[in-house]
Amino acid sequence: MPDREGTPEGIPVGIPVGIPVGVPVGPQRRCAACRARRPKAELLRFVRGPGGVEPDPGQVGRGRGGYCCPDPACIERGLRRGGLARTLRIPLSQEEAGRLAAWALEYLKGVHRGTAARPRIP
User: Fold this and answer.
1) What CA–CA distance (Å, rounded) separates 104 from 44?
2) Distance in angstroms (rounded) separating the CA atoms of residues 42 and 34
3) What structural domains and CATH numbers belong to the chain?
4) Are strands 44-49 and 64-68 parallel, antiparallel or unpaired?
């Protein structure tokens, strides 16, 4: 029989189960390649702007965004299979996909070395 304080198990109503109290739950996004849900801050963002598709490492660019896991295989899969293009609702040429993949690899190398400076976009 439910008590006045919550559910039959005694868990107060309105508290999500499995999430520690006090831990902020940030926005979640889905990878365009592997379809895994991850916190937005963990993913690389690409944005469709007036000049085409550009990487958006600061995740502040205006325009339609698409996300990929920070894994070279995932980024390559998203560009090769068209998941990122579908998410951004724009066709990507092989040339443009190659440029974005090269940028992402350079960026990830910098993150792993601790020098996450933004590489120049070719």
Assistant:
1) 8
2) 14
3) 28-112 (3.30.1230.10)
4) antiparallel
The span from the CA of 52 to the CA of 92, in Å, is: 9
Residue 74 near residue 31, CB atoms below 8 Å: yes
* Average pLDDT of the residues of the chain: 82
| Beta-carbon contacts of residue 14 (< 8 Å; ≥ 6 apart) | none
Instruction: For 20-78, write each residue's pLDDT tens digit.
Output: 665 557 899 999 999 999 999 999 999 999 989 999 989 999 999 999 999 999 999 99
Long-range interactions of 58-64: CB distance < 8 A, separation 24+:
64/88, 64/89
The count of other CB atoms within 10 Å of the CB of residue 101 is 16
Is the pLDDT at 17 greater than 60? The verdict is no
Q: Which amino acid is at 41?
A: A
- Cβ atoms 59, 40 nearer than 8 A: yes
Helices 94-113/72-80 angle, 10° precision: 170
